[in-house]
Design goal:
The two termini are 30 Å apart. This protein is mostly helical. Helices cover 47% and strands 7% of the residues. It comes from Baudoinia panamericana (strain UAMH 10762) (Angels' share fungus).
Length: 227
């Protein structure tokens, strides 16, 4: 069964079953052990669903998984969302707020959690509408941890090309413009200009933006239109 990518799908009561142990981080770094319901985490994550199949992988037999390359704080936020569907937010530091969501998207991409990827895209849009700033410092985090064509990259390319925040072009921010990101935004801006779509979007337009094209869905599935 494919993990859900739309919010109306919920885990059933029988999925709150046996407990598995997930160890996150390395001994030389902060690390933490989490106790999770096998059925719930497998419901949302294609990675856990495959790893926890009995008689397939050692993890499925031992009910223990080690994720040494994941950050403890990001995984804590994932576990919080796993059981509440509430994302972290409202940080005093706008860069930290964006980066927390970006790291969750990256975790969702690595561990095949499409719904987490989709809701973090939506949350980043909401942060932009609230704060009306895009941190260039986040570009390296995105481009270093995603592949060309990734939904997160395409989303940020769209925002950087069409929101047109003047602060992005200050001389003191040049060092944060990752070369590949700069090229992608330039190319997107040129294509918009060539096709007569070179408009600057305001807050209202961003708030109404259809984000489904930046979501991860099963073939043929789309988000429900909100009236």
């Amino acid at each position: 069964m494919s993990p859900p990518s739309t919010p109306e799908k919920l885990p059933t009561a029988n999925l709150f079953d046996e407990i598995i142990i997930v160890t996150v981080g390395k001994e030389l770094k902060p690390f933490k052990t989490f106790s999770l319901h096998k059925g719930v985490v497998s419901y949302y994550s294609g990675y856990f669903q495959a790893a926890l199949k009995e008689n397939t992988f050692q993890e499925g037999q031992s009910k223990r998984i080690e994720l040494p390359d994941e950050e403890v704080e990001t995984f804590e936020h994932f576990v919080g969302w796993l059981y509440t569907r509430v994302l972290p937010g409202n940080s005093d530091d706008y860069t930290a707020e964006y980066n927390g969501l970006i790291k969750l998207w990256i975790l969702g991409d690595k561990r095949q959690i499409p719904l987490l990827m989709n809701v973090t895209i939506d949350a980043m849009r909401d942060v932009l509408v609230k704060r009306w700033i895009l941190p260039r410092m986040s570009l390296g985090l995105i481009w270093e941890n995603t592949a060309p064509g990734a939904q997160l990259r395409r989303f940020w390319i769209h925002l950087m090309a069409q929101v047109g925040l003047r602060s992005s072009l200050k001389d003191e921010h040049k060092e944060f413009w990752v070369k590949d990101a700069l090229w992608d935004v330039f190319r997107a801006s040129y294509e918009m200009w060539r096709n007569g779509r070179a408009t600057t979007l305001n807050k209202d337009a961003i708030a109404k933006l259809d984000l489904c094209e930046y979501h991860c869905h099963e073939d043929g599935l789309k988000c429900e239109k909100v009236a």
